[in-house]
Write a structure and sequence with these properties.
mainly alpha; 4 helices; rod-shaped
């Protein structure tokens, strides 16, 4: 492996780090939209996240052979590049682990939001049913008493 190979690997890892940062920003927007319940904008953010995740996957495919044989591959790089690439690998791993943890939190928040909405709908339905139970059947009833003026 040459200096050029090391530079390419490092460049690819830097691209992946930038994409992880972009994904983190989108995840933050996602959480805000979950909290306020804006489903339409949430769908746009999710589509953006999918595009970023696809690009990260493409970079991971490029790096797979290097990662699979890192102990052997690294021996061909100068020490300074070895350290830089190793640090970049760790940085990507930490970013991805953090994103996964946040995604888990967001999934739990979505479940809680769904349960809250279901409870609100159930309460509303019960109130509607109670209101309907006190409505007269068959329209407005006629009065049973008639006021008469006998003069």
């Amino acid at each position: 492996m040459s200096q050029t190979d090391a530079d390419h690997i490092l460049s690819t890892l830097k691209q992946e780090i930038a994409l992880c940062d972009e994904l983190a920003a989108l995840r933050s927007q996602q959480r805000t939209l979950i909290d306020v319940g804006d489903a339409e904008k949430l769908l746009d953010v999710l589509a953006g996240k999918q595009r970023v995740i696809t690009r990260i996957g493409e970079l991971e495919k490029q790096l797979k052979p290097v990662k699979a044989d890192w102990e052997h591959v690294r021996q061909g790089f100068p020490p300074s590049r070895r350290l830089a690439i190793g640090e970049a690998f760790r940085n990507v791993q930490n970013l991805l682990e953090g994103l996964i943890a946040k995604e888990t939190e967001d999934a739990e928040a979505l479940v809680a939001r769904k349960q809250d909405l279901a409870q609100e709908l159930e309460t509303f339905d019960r109130k509607r049913q109670l209101g309907a139970a006190y409505q007269p059947v068959g329209g407005r009833p006629e009065s049973r008493f008639v006021d008469r003026k006998d003069a």
